[in-house]
Amino acid sequence: MNLMCTTLQELGENLISYGKANARELRETIMKILSARGYEVKRDVKLVGKSGTEYDIDVLAKYRAPLQTFKVIVKCKPDDEPIDRNDVLELIQAVEDLKVDKGVIAGLSGFTSDALTLAKNHNVDLWDKRKIENYAKELKVRSLDRIAYVTPSITAKAAREIVDKSLFGILSSFKVEEGSVVYYPYYELSLSKKIYEMKGFLFRRAEERMVKTSIYVDPIAKELIRFDLKKGMVKIMKFPSSLDEEEADLFKVLAEGEISLDSLMDLTKYPFEKVDRILNKLIEKDVVSRFERKGRIFYKLKEEAPSLANLSTSSILTSRLTSNRPLGGEVLKVEYDQSDLDNIIGMIWKCDISSKRTILYPYYVCKVIGKGRRSIKAVDMVTKKVDERVSMILTSLYLKLPF
Predict the structure, then answer these.
(1) Which of 31, 204, 246, 277 has CA atoms 20 to 30 A from the CA of 141?
(2) CB-based contacts of 98: which residues, under 8 Å, 6+ apart?
(3) pLDDT tens readout for residues 178-222
């Protein structure tokens, strides 16, 4: 994780300066730019065209509008040689065969005059180094590579005493094998969304309001989290996982609230058989539940996402944050695809992520043995309480803990 890149602009400049970026780095930069513009993005996708030809797509981006989905394919070319006419012809063929809306070639070494002329007459955009840098500068999207540590409000010794009190009684058979301060990663997301509220008593009118809030993501448990000054990190809902494109479409509609089968068909324009099939798959995945009311069948999410306007969450006190790693303690490391995160947030709330950063939150973690099993007790070193949620998560990772 590169701690020096604090904005997407800097990230883009670092990746493409002097034409030294490799294909992976260039692809990741393009994905961040498109994701920040509201696209759902996937990398290294294989698509089969109408002709039966298989294409290797560096980046597939989809923008879901109310009445249609706009699809873009991107070819990333970090080579030292300029993009030529043949490169553009290959993309034109892919765009037409795959029936997508647009193709983009992102190149770091410029384009030949023939390539520029050909692209102008077809549905292909050419992004050179300057254009990529400008897009990154305009967006000013923050990266999860920005890191802040939360400073503990108690010592490790005081946290150990809390563990001892929670475990040991006169007849206790538990034994603490060892303990350590562990910094647990959360992703802090600043969200914003325009909402419309009806105002007035006799003369009702719709008023626009911008809602802004911060939420946290637990990338290990794959849960949305809110911070509470007294309770610490509290689960909002579990991430929907492994949803295909059709399931994601229905999830977005259901995220607005419970709905009947007829209404789902009207909103998605899917026939009965297709909606019924997708709903049954979501029920099998324990994402959706079915219930009856007044003789009609309705569907809703098993874990309903709160409205952003009603989401009550606190930000971690700025006075407790530092960019410098405190002395002692271990950091839990996790690999998480930022584009997946953007897609999930867009699927749940259809809102903009204005900034991101990684928050490393302190727990005093004890390995405990008793009653024939090993487990974890984790003390929140901010609220000074045992956190049962994190204790359960770390128990499942017992053998992988860094101490």
Answers:
(1) 246
(2) 47, 49, 50, 55, 73
(3) 899 999 999 988 888 777 666 766 666 667 777 788 889 999 998
Domain annotation covers residue 16? yes
Pair (233, 167) in one structural domain: yes
Lowest-confidence region among 94-98, 334-338, 347-351: 334-338
Are residues 120 and 95 part of one domain?
yes
Of 342, 144, 311, 142, the C-alpha closest to 239 is 342
- Report the percentage of the chain scoring pLDDT > 90: 36
Of the candidates 12, 129, 45, the residue with the CA atom closest to the CA atom of residue 82: 129
Please identify, among 139, 169, 194, the residue that sits at the C-terminal boundary of a domain.
139
Domain span holding position 277 = 258-301
Shared domain for 20 and 62, answered yes or no, is yes
Structure-token match 């699927």, residue found: 347
Assess if residue 27 is contained within a domain.
yes
CB of 349 within 8 A of CB of 212? no
What is the rounded CA–CA span in Å between residue 378 and residue 387?
6
| Residue where the block lists tokens 């037409």 | 96
